[in-house]
């Protein structure tokens, strides 16, 4: 029988420590020290900045980096290249915001649910947002992304609250297993209702399917700006839960023994997750694998300490999303492959590789 590595994040110190138990294949390499973690985080920020610049330069019409800098510092409306760069800025900003939100929320969701496969689907976020958008199109005739935002956000928030309330029923409260089961059951029901509407209205299907694919193309500032306050509040809430998630990772009984109010803790963290996932899904559509793959990948550098996992996920997730978007722009010229499809194509094999290695830090 294979013995898994047992880890526990220390409550003391600024960098956190991890205790690892030697398995049958010998001791696994522990997480990097605090200084190395900081260096890796800085390197990730540099990579993200490079990709942001590449996002402004690369596309069906390539722009030299020097021209990109000129467009940002001394914009000339009569210059066609400058106009292209400025047209790509909202797309790049949305990639940064949505990617960071999904990575941060995915890491927190895995900590709250103590489920390594947790992603926006486990709380019904994607299903709730999708049904709300379909309802907005079918009933209210919504036809713009700025209109989708509010329906998607409300649907995601309501679905997450319903999942949590259902999972909270009973003596033990919202346990990880009950959260997963409630989320799966609600998602199945909501998607069934959505399909009933779609098969009865071709016009609704035609409008909905572009949003459903998920991506950052075709959005402008009218779509991006309304979501920024929600993302900011959600990010602050989740980033402040690192120590709390470390306690929850030890189990509910131990967390209570350490003075945590488990139910309230999960509810507050879930609020931040809903704000992040709901807004990101509303802005960019349901983008898969970002919130699932990135937290697993960063654990190879951070270990099980959520005080490091959360900021690493915040930076690494938009790296994946921007890279997927850039590749999607050039892989089938003159057309594009939406970022939501590219993240699945890139993320799925990476996730399988991470799982097969089987040496990552536990939750």
UniProtKB/TrEMBL annotation:
SUPFAM superfamilies: ABC transporter involved in vitamin B12 uptake, BtuC. Residues 1-32 are annotated as: Disordered. GO terms for cellular component: plasma membrane. The keyword Transport applies. This is Transporter permease. InterPro entries: ABC_BtuC-like, ABC_transptr_permease_BtuC. Belongs to the binding-protein-dependent transport system permease family. FecCD subfamily. It comes from Arthrobacter nitrophenolicus. The keyword Cell membrane applies. One of its GO terms (molecular function) is transmembrane transporter activity. It is found in: Cell membrane.
């Amino acid at each position: 029988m294979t013995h898994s590595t047992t880890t526990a994040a220390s409550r003391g110190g600024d960098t956190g420590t991890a205790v690892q138990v030697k398995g049958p294949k010998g001791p696994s390499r522990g997480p990097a020290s605090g200084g190395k973690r900081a260096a890796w985080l800085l390197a990730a920020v540099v990579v993200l900045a490079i990709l942001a610049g590449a996002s402004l330069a690369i596309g069906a019409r390539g722009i030299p980096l020097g021209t990109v800098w000129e467009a940002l510092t001394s914009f000339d409306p009569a210059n066609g290249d400058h106009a292209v760069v400025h047209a790509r800025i909202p797309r790049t900003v949305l990639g940064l915001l949505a990617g960071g939100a999904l990575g941060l929320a995915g890491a927190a969701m895995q900590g709250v649910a103590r489920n390594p496969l947790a992603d926006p689907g486990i709380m019904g976020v994607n299903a709730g947002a999708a049904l709300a958008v379909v309802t907005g199109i079918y009933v209210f005739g919504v036809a713009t992304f700025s209109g989708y935002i509010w329906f998607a956000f409300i649907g995601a928030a309501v679905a997450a609250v319903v999942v949590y309330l259902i999972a909270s029923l009973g003596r033990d409260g919202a346990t990880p297993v009950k959260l997963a089961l409630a989320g799966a059951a609600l998602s199945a029901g909501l998607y069934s209702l959505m399909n009933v509407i779609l098969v009865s209205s071709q016009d609704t299907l035609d409008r909905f399917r572009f949003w459903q694919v998920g991506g950052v193309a075709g959005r402008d500032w009218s779509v991006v700006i309304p979501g920024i306050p929600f993302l900011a509040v959600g990010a602050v809430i989740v980033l402040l839960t690192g120590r709390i998630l470390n306690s929850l990772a030890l189990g509910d009984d131990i967390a209570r023994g350490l003075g945590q109010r488990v139910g309230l803790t999960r509810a507050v963290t879930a609020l931040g997750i809903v704000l992040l996932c709901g807004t990101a899904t509303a802005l960019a559509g349901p983008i898969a694998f970002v919130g699932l793959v990135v937290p697993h990948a960063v654990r190879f550098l951070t270990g099980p300490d959520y005080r490091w996992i959360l900021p690493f996920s915040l930076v690494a997730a938009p790296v994946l999303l921007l890279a997927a978007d850039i590749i999607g722009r050039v892989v089938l010229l003159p057309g594009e492959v939406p970022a939501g499809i590219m993240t699945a194509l890139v993320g799925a094999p990476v996730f399988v590789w991470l799982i097969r290695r089987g040496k990552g830090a536990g939750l």
